[in-house]
Amino acid sequence: MKHIFSKIGWFVKENWKTYVVLFLLLIAISLISLAPAYVLGLSIDTIVSGGLTKESLLMLVFGLGMLPLARYFLSFIYNHLSQKTAQTLTFQMRKRYLSHLFDMDSQFYEKYDKGDLIARITADLDAIAQAASSMLEGIIFNVGVIIFAITVMSLTISWELTLISVSIMPIALTILNSIRNKKRKYIKKHREIYADMTEKVLESVEGQKAIRAYVQEDNDLEKQYQAINNDIESWRYIVKFENWFNPLFEVVYGIAYILAFAFGIYYIMQQQMTLGGLITFVSYIGMLYGPIISISNIFAQINNATISVDRLDEIMQQQPIVHDEMDSKPIVTFESIEFKDVTFKYPFDKQPVIKQITFTIHHGQTIGIVGPTGAGKSTLIRQLLREFNVTDGQVFVDGLPIGTYKIEDIRNLVGYVPQSHMLFRRSVEDNILIGNPKASNQAFDRAVKIADFEKDLIYLQNDLQTMVGEAGATLSGGQKQRLSIARALVKDPQILILDDSLSAVDAKTEDTIIEHLKDFRKGKTNIIVAHRFSAVRDADMIYVLENGRITQKGTHHDLLRQEGWYKMQYIQQMTMSR
Ligand code: ADP
Q1: What pTM was estimated for this model as a whole?
Q2: How far is ligand 1, taken at its centre, from the CA of residue 304, in Å?
Q3: pLDDT value for 498
Q4: What's the pLDDT at 473?
Q5: Whose Cα sits closest to atom 19 in ligand 1?
Q6: Is the pLDDT of residue 249 over 80?
Q7: How far apart are CA 485 and CA 446, in angstroms?
Q8: What are the phi and psi torsion angles at 452 (to 5°)?
Q9: CB 397, CB 334: distance < 8 Å
Q10: Is the CB of 379 under 6 A from ligand 1?
């Protein structure tokens, strides 16, 4: 309980006024709930003693009639306020979690599956919010009712009888809670199975085109069923515990009743208690049952939520390895970028992907990077995005290690067009403007022109306003590439990186884009990773990367004069294109 409270304490502090109002409402509702039994006892004693008058009867009926009405209104206000508070808590926790996810680096996303992260923000967060609101309200309310009922029972009726009948209840509650604690490890396992199921659903939805193309629907469904089945099985196991132990309350309750009746009748015979007193007393025991069951259920919820708190905490405790320092420097332009003996290994791999890379890029140059698939071209060039820290060596920008500068500034220098293109569920225009939402119309038109995307617009139903992404029109591979290039160009970046971004466009379009880059990006830096040599032919410097190492460098003409991969591949490409 402390565990959860420590996680939501900030929220209670921020909203303490609301909690005071909720608390007062609960006290009022508890008093109203307990009043009828008390009035009933008094009335019976008045009837037995023959003191009932017409006026007192009317007052009694009126009073009893007003109580439910008052309870209804107070409960309405209470429910409204408490649900609103619970929603606000969920919203704020989600906001914190999401903003934390945005702060995380690539290493974090290599470690956690998307499905797992989604499960934590949905199922786990809901469990916490639910337990938090039940804990704050439910426990206050139920404990309030119990304490009040026991106080009234012992002060106005008989403390001995109260002690005898209710002492058995905490014993049962303690036994039940210790059993529930044993259940924790199964709940933890269940959460992991749930995350696995979410991941599988996500994968199938994302990959539904490939699944259909390979007629793997049945196979995939089979895997889904298995995941769903695992989820249900693990939950069933947990529920079994509940089913075994919950009915124990009925037994406890029955014993409390029997004790109250037996001792109550004895006290009446001894003239230490009235009949009305016994009826009030027995009604109160009935009223204790509900709150005790509720408290037990709340403990079960808290039990579930504690595991969720740990799961969410695990994420919130993670700190990005790539992060800004207090004294990180700003940077808006650069003169040179130097890779010095750079070796890089992905966090969960054993072998480095690029090894002892040394080369320099000067401002305004166009650099070509070529080499076989899997050689590490993309990995090399992505070092400029500061996704990971290099494993060995250093990348210097204007003589200072790249880590000296603000990450955001370094990323702002770069317009990166990746190999796979991400379309968002927005209009074509908005998809391009992701590169720079504040771009002027002029900059926008220029980007569209350089990327040779203009010619695609006439095929789109609503021109730039055509919706794309999952729910919108589907663009061809080439169109997606051109849109992505326009997205990077709208930023007018200091460094444009085309990471094999021309693979889906035809040779003529590629030529047009390369020509446009030469015209429009004079004085800016371009890095072109390509398979076709026509894309890098005019680069100031071309590097050949093989198996993570630079094996050749020079201009197109230099490289054609050297024996090696470049010349061999060039001849092959020329022969094939004839
Ligand atoms: P290229 O761009 O030359 O085709 P990449 O840089 O994409 O090569 O990949 C180089 C190697 O790094 C490949 O063996 C690939 O499997 C591996 N690799 C790429 N991305 C990751 C990653 N995120 N985690 C682990 N290994 C990766």
Answers
A1: 0.72
A2: 40
A3: 93
A4: 62
A5: 379
A6: no
A7: 12
A8: 60, 35
A9: yes
A10: yes
